[in-house]
Specification:
- By secondary structure, the chain is mainly beta.
- It has a domain of 232 residues.
- The protein has 5 helices and 32 strands.
- The protein has a 20-stranded parallel sheet that branches.
- The relative contact order is 0.14.
Length: 514
């Protein structure tokens, strides 16, 4: 692990250091699509400056998410006239003409083979189903006898693949290849199902690839099931500014961020595989958004080997995704009431799990007022998981950059010193130590992080680290590695203050789903 030379940090550099690990992606700031109106207050605002029980923040809803696509919203095709339109490769122009004048409750069937488009397929109608012959396999850029591939390699710049606004929308059994922007974007819609869909860009590690694979945003009742996403320059599978979502049995590989849950209420992330991304899974809120994310269950996912070098564009990205250190397994930022159970982490070079404050990316609480002051992380229950080991031993793959990924550089410097005193790796769970702000250091675990009944590698001594960004990072800026290391707190997995049984009331999200 390289030992870096540090100079005195300016306040701007310090803020960058504090925030670097925390931003993998955000929704497109340049889009002006009207908001869906889903602006539900997730709970009362808790003053992060006090040591309160964060479990009282949001409350729990009885949401086992039983709908599985289409039954929970206000629009239904039951009793209405329906139609089916069928297209084969070579009929792309006819298809584009028809989608501009669709009647509601229409099914569009696409035959097996390759469809080539010069523009997005734009749908603005309710009750539309788009179905192909199969999603094919990774790397398949042309359709076969049992697969349908929609190719957008020659499409207009900055266009999406599928661009949808419409309740009760379903897309299944097809692939979207080389979209210029987002592969499948669904916005301001209720009852959205994406099933057996593959999104992919032909070349890995290209910053010019589209930003998002599956991208439902500002929506309600979303199901993403048995899907695949590869090579997105931002997030492969994204759910943002949404209420009630399931992401299950899906695969995200070779993206900057594998799976992302942003400013979302009541989400269930179940049985997915996130491997070979820069960061595997993220759950976070961003400032300025009216939806306060809460009640997220992350269960039975495999989040291993997320060590792909960050290939997001520094200039073109709509976020600071380019700052994420390679090797980040999972992180939560400005998140509350998050349960992680039955998951497997391992071989994530920077860290397996990180819990960060929203103040680490925007230290002005006023900027978080849209959702009632949602900057504080709280109530994180990590239990019954398996940590395989091999993580935290090569921060940012050793390719640290103080200018591009400053917190990765700070971690590398800190743990390079730690190596000299016997601590070799970043612990399995990293907490930035910011919330509540200002922090009372006498409180060991004021935000209720619970770490229980997890399987750890043999010989593990410390499993949790309180990084204390407010104290350690300024000392790093002054090249005081001894003082910076002394400001961090390292805890065993059975530390009493972290050995707690979750939060109250407990999550019910997904209880009705096997």
């Amino acid at each position: 692990m390289p030992r870096l030379q540090w100079t005195r940090a300016t306040s701007a550099t310090l803020l960058a250091l504090v925030g670097a690990l925390s931003l993998t992606a955000c929704s497109d700031d340049d889009d002006n699509t009207p908001d869906s109106g889903v602006k539900v207050d997730a709970g009362t605002n808790t003053d992060a400056g006090t040591d309160t029980d964060a479990g009282s923040d949001a409350g729990s809803v009885d949401t086992g998410i039983p709908w599985d696509g289409g039954s929970a919203g206000t629009f239904s095709c039951e009793g209405k006239a329906t139609a089916t339109l069928t297209f084969a490769p070579g009929q792309e122009e006819e298809l584009q003409d028809k989608v501009n004048t669709l009647a509601e409750c229409t099914t569009i069937t696409l035959a097996a083979g390759t469809f080539t488009f010069e523009n997005a397929i734009t749908i603005r109608q309710k009750g539309i189903t788009l179905v192909g012959a199969g999603k094919g396999t990774k790397g398949q850029g042309t359709g076969g006898a049992s697969s349908t591939v929609l190719v957008f390699t020659g499409a207009a710049a900055n266009s999406n693949g599928l661009d949808v606004v419409g309740d009760r929308f379903e897309v299944r059994d097809l692939a979207v290849w080389n979209a210029k922007k987002d592969a499948i974007r669904v916005e301001s819609s209720t009852d959205v199902v994406m099933r057996r869909v593959r999104t992919e860009w032909a070349e890995a590690d290209k910053e010019s690839n589209g930003k998002y694979g599956l991208y439902p945003v500002k929506s309600k009742y979303v199901v993403i099931d048995d899907c695949e996403a590869y090579n997105a320059a931002d997030a492969g599978i994204y759910v943002g500014q949404t209420q009630y979502a399931v992401v299950r049995n899906s695969v995200a590989k070779q993206n900057v961020a594998g799976i992302e849950i942003e400013n979302t209420q009541y989400a269930y992330v179940l049985g997915n595989t996130a491997q070979d991304n820069t960061t595997g899974l993220v759950v976070f809120d961003l400032p300025g958004n009216p939806i306060k994310g809460t009640d997220i269950r992350v269960k039975n996912n495999v989040i291993t080997g997320n060590n792909r070098n960050n290939f997001a564009s520094v200039q073109a990205s709509s976020s600071t995704v380019s700052q994420v250190p390679a090797g980040t397994g999972t992180f939560m930022l400005a998140s509350r009431r998050v349960e992680l159970t039955g998951n497997t982490w391992g071989n994530n070079n920077t860290v397996d799990v990180a819990v960060l404050s929203g103040l680490s990316i925007d230290p002005n609480p006023a900027n978080w007022s849209a959702a009632g002051g949602n900057f504080a992380s709280s109530d994180v229950y990590v239990h019954g998981n398996t940590f395989q080991g091999g993580s935290g031993d090569s921060v940012d793959n050793g390719n640290v950059s103080q200018s591009l990924r400053p917190l990765g550089a700070a971690l590398a410097a800190l743990y390079a010193y730690g190596e000299t005193v016997g601590t070799l790796n970043v612990e399995h769970l990293l907490w930035d130590g910011v919330d509540p702000a200002p922090r009372n250091r006498a409180q060991v675990n004021p935000i209720n992080i619970c770490f229980m009944d997890n399987t750890l590698p043999s010989g593990t001594t410390t499993a949790i680290v309180d990084l204390d960004l407010q104290a350690a990072v300024p000392l790093l800026g002054n090249s005081d590695l001894v003082g910076a290391w002394g400001a961090t707190r390292h805890y065993a997995a059975n530390k009493a203050e972290f050995n707690c049984a979750g939060f109250t009331p407990a999550l019910t999200i997904g209880d009705l789903i096997p």
